Amino acid sequence: MNTQRILITTSWLNEGDDVHRLLLDAGHEVVYGRPADLKSQGLTLQDVIADVDGVIAGVEPFGADVLNAAQKLKVVARTGVGYDNVDLATANARGIAVCATPGVNRQSVAEFAIASLLNLVRQIPQNSVIVQGGGWAQPSGRELLGKTLGVVGLGAIGKTVAQLARAFGMRVIAYDPYFDEAFAAEIGVERVELPELIANADAITLHVFLNEETRHLINAETIATMRDGAIIVNAARGGTVDETALVEALRSGKLAGAALDTFEQEPLPADSPLRGVENLILTSHIAGATHEGRARSGAMAAESVVEVLNNNLPRQCVNKEAVAAAAV
């Protein structure tokens, strides 16, 4: 058996867990370079990636400098849906397979989005702070029943959000360039263009990848067209929301609230203007962080690495054509 070396950088994967055992059973050597490992040893990713054949990666940047430090590298498998932290152009040029774990955390993220909506409309975090501090306030919140939810991105996660929202009696409108008409008809989702969605939704949830088309999709101009008192939930990618414009809209009262689980810079800087905004819920990129979702994600990433090292390209490889071309 051809033993190859696999680096794990995902912070929540550990020695002795199912992923570790899966890789060992496949005959590979496993090493760890999680953020806490690197910090404690005073090392960087470049220091630990040089002699590895595969990586199971977290959210840290795998730029050209990191990828080019690993001349044996054949595969980077992300434990997550997105892969924008991996320099795809460099991976393509090098023939490095890049894999993601689509669908594994859709229930986790969808439940988080609905939980965020409920917390925002009922002001649960703010009321908890008051009661914990010895106060006793009973503000009036709002129900989701009858409100219009705008779902931006009707992929696996967006569809699950739509299903959950419909169960609450919400009207659901959605925008997606590749709109699933059959699903929408079955669940009762209305297809609209993006400007119409932004103008007519009481609440907006984002479920899109980050690219040049979606960067700052929510900005001062689009916020100006929203309903007064609308709310926004972003559990997709931080760069899809212009954070400065969001803060201004929240402080002015244009928006009633927002929940952000992802940010343009992570971890969120101590001096970020997002901190201290009363009607803004901030969480540390945990929408997909359930035991169930992480178990599925870790297993799929490990299986992808094993497949690539066995000279196969799994369906979740996002750059199959480039890898195949580089092998010619």
Q: What portion of residues is helical?
A: 25-40%
**Low-pLDDT segments:** none
Number of strands: 12
Question: SS-based structural class?
Answer: alpha/beta
CATH architecture of the largest domain: 3-Layer(aba) Sandwich
CATH class of the largest domain: Alpha Beta
CATH topology tier name of the largest domain: Rossmann fold
Q: What is the name of the CATH superfamily of the largest domain? A: NAD(P)-binding Rossmann-like Domain
Biggest sheet strand order reads 8-7-6-9-10-11-12
Total discrete domains: 2
Folded structure, characterized:
This protein is of the alpha/beta class and 328 residues long. It folds into 2 domains: 137 residues, NAD(P)-binding Rossmann-like Domain (Rossmann fold, 3-Layer(aba) Sandwich), CATH 3.40.50.720; 177 residues, 3-Layer(aba) Sandwich (Rossmann fold). Helices cover 38% and strands 15% of the residues. It contains 14 helices and 12 strands. A 7-stranded parallel beta sheet has the order 8-7-6-9-10-11-12, sandwiched between helices. α1 runs parallel beside α13. It starts with a strand and ends with a helix. The model has no long low-confidence stretch (mean pLDDT 96).
